[in-house]
């Protein structure tokens, strides 16, 4: 299946060779729409051959909307096929037809982690530790495979189910990148991410995988007090504070938080990435096994 005409002849040729051109509707029965936007739709579906099997989520992306960004889609799908971790959403397969690219993944029925934070306002330390350990484990897995996510935020983690203690699943690898080395040559320059969660070195245009730990540090800060560590009335102000403002813990919100939790947050939100704690070191931090948190 080759794109033709003004949209760029041959732009989908390579990806069409990699993924199935079978009509997705002959393989899956669509159930209901659970998301949508300018890119296309996300719908739940089951296998036609076994309607009682697991429910899948199928993201259908309009080809005309991604013709210019096809290499980003290829990178995302390649990464999804490389990773295998209980806290990363599982990729199943991909279909292509004349209008859409259909990406089939496991379905997480519990909604976004963001909504859980909004509903709770803030987490207990024990709950925060349980969720953060899963997120760090997923990031450790990515980094071990030479992948940096680059856009970690609560909206990019889904709850596996609706239970209070549901596992979290990392999603959306659209900005993710594979890195070949730790040296200066392998460092990234493109400024990407979401304002509240972007690391200072990303804003400076010279960074590597350490930016993911910063983003998780921001999320942990939000878990524990209900708001981000570096705020502002607009993106410019947020970015300035990320770069320049010292990390502080307002006593009104942090007096009842353990010193161990604050220590981990400080180490994750170290502005110098060379001094920042790694995902593996985070998981070894005593806060996660402390008897003092509840």
Detailed description of the structure:
By secondary structure, the protein is of the alpha+beta class. It folds into 2 domains: 5-106, Phosphorylase Kinase, domain 1 (2-Layer Sandwich), CATH 3.30.200; 113-289, Transferase(Phosphotransferase), domain 1, CATH 1.10.510. It contains 11 helices and 9 strands. The strands form 3 sheets. Strands 1-2-3-5-4 form a 5-stranded antiparallel beta sheet. The protein has a two-stranded antiparallel ribbon with strand order 6-9. The chain has a two-stranded antiparallel ribbon with strand order 7-8. Helix 5 (125-144) packs antiparallel against helix 7 (210-225) and helix 7 (210-225) packs antiparallel against helix 10. The longest helix has 20 residues, at 125-144.
């Amino acid at each position: 299946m080759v794109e033709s005409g003004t949209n760029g002849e041959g732009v989908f040729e390579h990806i069409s060779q990699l993924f199935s051109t079978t009509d997705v509707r002959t393989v899956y029965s669509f159930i209901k729409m659970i998301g949508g936007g300018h890119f296309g739709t996300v719908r739940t579906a089951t296998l036609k051959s076994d309607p009682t099997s697991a429910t899948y989520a199928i993201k259908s992306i309009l080809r005309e909307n991604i013709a210019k960004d096809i290499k980003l889609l290829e990178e995302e799908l390649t990464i999804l096929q490389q990773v295998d971790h209980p806290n990363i959403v599982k990729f199943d397969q991909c279909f292509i037809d004349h209008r859409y690219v259909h990406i089939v993944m496991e379905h997480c029925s519990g909604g976004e982690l963001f909504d859980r934070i909004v509903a709770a306002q803030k987490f207990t330390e024990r709950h925060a530790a349980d969720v953060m350990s899963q997120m760090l484990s997923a990031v450790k897995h990515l980094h071990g495979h030479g992948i940096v996510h680059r856009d970690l935020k609560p909206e990019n983690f889904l709850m596996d189910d609706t239970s209070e203690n549901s596992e979290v699943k990392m999603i959306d690898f659209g900005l993710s990148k594979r890195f070949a080395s730790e040296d200066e040559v392998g460092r990234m320059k493109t400024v990407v991410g979401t304002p509240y969660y972007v690391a200072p070195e990303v804003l400076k245009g010279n960074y590597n995988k350490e930016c993911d730990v910063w983003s998780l540090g921001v999320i942990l800060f939000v878990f524990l007090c209900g708001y981000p560590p570096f705020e502002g009335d607009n993106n410019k102000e947020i970015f300035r504070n990320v770069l320049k403002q010292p990390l502080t813990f307002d006593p009104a919100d942090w007096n009842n938080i353990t010193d161990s939790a604050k220590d981990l947050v400080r180490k994750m939100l170290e502005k110098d990435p060379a001094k920042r704690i790694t995902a593996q070191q985070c998981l070894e931090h005593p806060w996660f096994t402390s008897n003092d948190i509840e």
